[in-house]
């Protein structure tokens, strides 16, 4: 059931600021249709450099549309310097609050605003263009994750997912998100696990690879409906085949290198190269 | 369900509750008035325990048996003794799967599909996880094609001597696609493998004759066929090895412990009797309404597509994707008109990804996010369908006006020009 305030419903059902502006001074889009929501913000400045007219186009759920409308209500009449200080909390507060799992809708509004202003000033948009992508499923950078963790004092991966969607897809980045949370709060990163002693015989290596796949790799994939099977081992070349969800997951190559190979390198041998030799159903 | 959003709520507008157009019957159904009437005596006066030796208690046992006969008749089962009453469909599925594995302890392979309900899917996934202290199972989750259909050759190839159980649903809850249970069951018999089917969506909508169909176990749920929530049943073919899931007393012929929920079982029996009588109506009149709704929406709304095979489908279900708009937004706007449906969009699944069923079918994300399922019942009226056909196309148009995508599809004219 919906847990939306009347204000959210009002701005969703009767948004005041939808539409397009011809020749806008600021025009930025964040998100995309694959991820499930996207917001295009257009702004026309008046002669005094204030936000005279602003419109949005949004693909997304009720709270995404309401957040977009609220954003524009909050920035109208402001200078860009003033507008830049509008936070996602301001958007959520304007709407009388958002369900926790929908906080990312307000963050999307904040991102669109920051991106539009950065582009207008011909500055790099740091939340998107700088830093590295942590969540490949939703294209979320470490910069954005650090920002929300710091500003909202977040402590769990789930909270980060609520605010940014990061970690809500294949879950392959949960360890990285945990490390960012620890870093922001000034705690040491989770200690890396001890490396297996080398050198190993081929037989030992195969056994160890099987153990690591069973104990460390497969449970995580299986929890998401996927799986991976060991096909062959040729010295340090490990051939695997994805099963279940992973077989058609659009980012299975990320899982292959970022999870399977990374785990085997960490726990078996740093020179291991993993190859996917399964039939890829996504291409069929 | 994993868990498609089922959002129907009229907010504070209590006055409009009477105008609810309930097209979410695959989520749950209205309890039939006849069912309520049949149950009342067992809630008020006839509260005895069917296991009691005295007349007051013991007399209710024959009502439980009558319910069992009605359910056996609906399923076309050979013997009412093949019906075990449970608390819900999920319990029935769990009981069937765990029984199969307990009875064939040397086999460590389970075959299922990617589009099962979580009542089956999550159990199978759990079995496939390496957990110290319990056997680890190999789980084959078979894919489906773009219309949600199973490939029987692939199915056959998946069976081996280690296979303990096949669990394939009779009909899919999200798309209504009907699976070839007769062929699946026949292949299982050839290999000597137990076949369980989750028929929660199919019972009461599809004619069944289990006496002649190669099904070993079948799960069903009361609240999907106009009985209350909290009751279900498991069919276990006579001669099938069975190990109880819930142990306790000797109830249900030692196959399910726990004092029988007499009122609910009586209600389920009545619902089975009604469903049997209404099977024709479901497959003619309800199917006709569904077809009218579907054709109307696909014609009136541009860039709309049907999810699931057009023919091999439950008569009451249609799943349509409206591209470039988001399902939760559609549902909330429909809700303003009192129309209840559900969506496979990410925002309504409780996760950030769209429905696993639509993804398994390879429905593009652009369409999966805008999927809406309508599921009708024998209580659905032509006027209700008219209302939906009237209110939904403008909602889609409105949301596309707001959306930065799909602006070429704002009017039916755009569709016409694409078709020519």
Would you kindly provide a written description of the structure presented here, covering whatever features stand out?
The complex is a heterodimer of chains A (about 280) and B (about 425). With about 280 residues, chain A is an alpha+beta fold. Chain A has helices spanning about 5-15, 60-75, 80-85, 90-95, 105-120, 125-130, 140-150, 155-165, 175-185, 200-225, 245-250, 250-265, and strands at about 25-30, 35-45, 50-60, 135, 140, 225-235, 235-245, 275. Chain A folds into three domains: about 5-125, Sufe protein. Chain: A (Alpha-Beta Complex); about 130-185, Orthogonal Bundle (Arc Repressor Mutant, subunit A); about 200-285, Fe-S cluster assembly (FSCA) (GMP Synthetase, Chain A, domain 3, 2-Layer Sandwich). Chain A contains twelve helices and eight strands. In chain A, the strands form three sheets. A three-stranded antiparallel β-sheet of chain A has the order 1-2-3, covered by helices on one side. Chain A has a three-stranded mixed β-sheet with strand order 6-7-8. Chain A is elongated. The two termini of chain A are about 40 Å apart. In chain A, about 45% of the residues are buried. Mean pLDDT of chain A is about 85; it is low at about 190-200 and about 280-284. Chain B has about 425 residues and is α/β, with parallel strands linked by helices. Helices cover about 40% and strands about 15% of the residues of chain B. Chain B has 15 helices and 13 strands. Chain B has helices at about 35-45, 55-60, 60-75, 90-105, 120-125, 150-160, 180-190, 250-255, 260-300, 325-335, 345-350, 355-360, 365-370, 380-400, 410-420; strands at about 5, 20, 85, 110-115, 140, 165, 195-200, 215-220, 230-235, 305, 315-320, 340-345, 370-375. Chain B has a seven-stranded mixed β-sheet, with helices on both faces. The relative contact order of chain B is 0.16. The chains are: A alpha+beta (about 280), B alpha/beta (about 425). At the A-B interface, helix 1, strand 2, strand 3, helix 2 and helix 10 of A face helix 10 and helix 12 of B.
């Amino acid at each position: 059931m919906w847990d939306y305030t009347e204000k959210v419903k009002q701005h969703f059902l009767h948004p005041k600021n939808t539409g397009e502006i011809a020749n806008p001074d600021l025009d930025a889009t964040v998100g995309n249709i694959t991820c499930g929501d996207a917001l295009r913000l257009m702004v026309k400045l008046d002669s005094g450099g204030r936000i005279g007219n602003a419109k949005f186009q949004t693909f997304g759920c009720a709270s995404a549309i309401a957040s977009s409308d609220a954003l524009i209500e909050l920035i109208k009449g402001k200078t860009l310097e003033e507008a830049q200080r509008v936070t996602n909390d301001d958007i959520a507060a304007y709407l009388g609050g958002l369900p926790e799992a929908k906080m990312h809708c307000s963050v999307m509004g904040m991102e669109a605003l920051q991106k539009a202003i950065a582009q207008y000033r011909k500055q790099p948009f740091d939340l998107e263009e700088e830093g590295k992508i942590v969540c490949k499923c939703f294209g979320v950078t470490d910069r954005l994750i650090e920002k929300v963790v710091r500003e909202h004092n977040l402590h769990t991966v789930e909270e980060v997912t609520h605010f940014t969607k990061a970690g809500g897809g294949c879950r392959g980045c949960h360890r990285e998100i945990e490390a960012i949370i620890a870093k922001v709060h000034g705690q040491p990163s989770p200690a890396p696990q001890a490396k297996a002693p080398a050198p190993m015989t081929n037989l030992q290596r195969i056994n160890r690879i099987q153990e690591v796949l069973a104990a460390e790799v497969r449970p995580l994939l299986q929890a998401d409906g996927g799986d991976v099977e060991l096909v062959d081992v040729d010295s340090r070349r490990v051939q695997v085949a994805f099963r279940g969800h992973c077989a058609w997951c659009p980012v299975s190559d990320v899982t292959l290198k970022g999870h399977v190979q990374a785990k085997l390198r960490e726990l078996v041998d740093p020179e291991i190269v993993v190859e996917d030799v399964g039939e890829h159903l996504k291409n069929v | 369900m994993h868990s498609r959003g089922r959002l129907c709520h009229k907010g504070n507008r209590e006055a409009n509750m009477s105008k609810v157009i309930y097209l979410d019957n695959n989520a749950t159904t209205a309890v039939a008035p006849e069912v309520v009437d049949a149950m009342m005596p067992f809630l008020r006066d006839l509260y005895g325990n069917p296991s009691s030796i005295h007349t007051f208690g013991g007399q209710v046992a024959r009502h439980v048996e009558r319910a069992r006969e009605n359910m056996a008749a609906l399923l076309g089962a050979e013997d009412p003794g093949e019906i075990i009453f449970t608390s819900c469909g999920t319990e029935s599925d769990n009981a069937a799967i765990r029984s199969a594995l307990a009875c064939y302890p040397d086999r460590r392979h389970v075959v299922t599909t990617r589009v099962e309900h979580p009542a089956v899917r999550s159990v199978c996934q759990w079995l496939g996880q390496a957990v110290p202290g319990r056997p680890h199972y190999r789980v084959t989750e078979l894919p489906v094609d773009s219309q949600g259909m199973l490939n029987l050759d692939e199915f056959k190839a998946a069976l081996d001597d280690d296979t303990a159980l096949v669990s394939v649903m009779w009909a899919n809850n999200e798309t209504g696609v009907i699976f070839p249970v007769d062929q699946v069951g026949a292949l299982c018999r050839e290999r000597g493998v137990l076949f369980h089917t989750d028929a929660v969506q199919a019972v009461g909508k599809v004619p069944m004759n289990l006496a002649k169909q190669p099904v070993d176990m079948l799960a069903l749920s009361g609240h999907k066929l106009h009985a209350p929530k909290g009751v279900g049943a498991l069919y276990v073919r006579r001669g099938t090895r069975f190990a109880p899931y819930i142990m306790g007393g000797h109830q249900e012929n030692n196959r399910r412990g726990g004092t029988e929920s007499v009122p609910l079982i009586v209600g389920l029996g009545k619902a089975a009797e009604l469903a049997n009588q209404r099977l024709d109506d479901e497959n003619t009149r309800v199917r006709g309404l569904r077809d009218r709704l579907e054709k109307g929406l696909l014609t009136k709304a541009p860039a709309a597509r049907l999810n699931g095979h057009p023919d091999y489908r439950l008569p009451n279900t249609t799943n349509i994707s409206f591209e470039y708009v988001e399902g939760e937004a559609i549902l909330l706007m429909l809700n303003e008109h009192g129309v209840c449906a559900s969506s496979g969009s990410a925002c309504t699944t409780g996760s950030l990804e769209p429905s696993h069923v639509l993804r398994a079918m390879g429905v593009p994300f652009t369409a999966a996010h805008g999927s809406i399922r309508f599921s009708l019942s024998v209580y659905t009226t032509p006027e209700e369908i008219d209302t939906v056909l009237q209110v939904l196309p403008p909602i889609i148009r409105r949301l596309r006006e707001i959306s930065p995508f799909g602006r070429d599809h704002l009017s039916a004219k755009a569709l016409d020009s694409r078709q020519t």
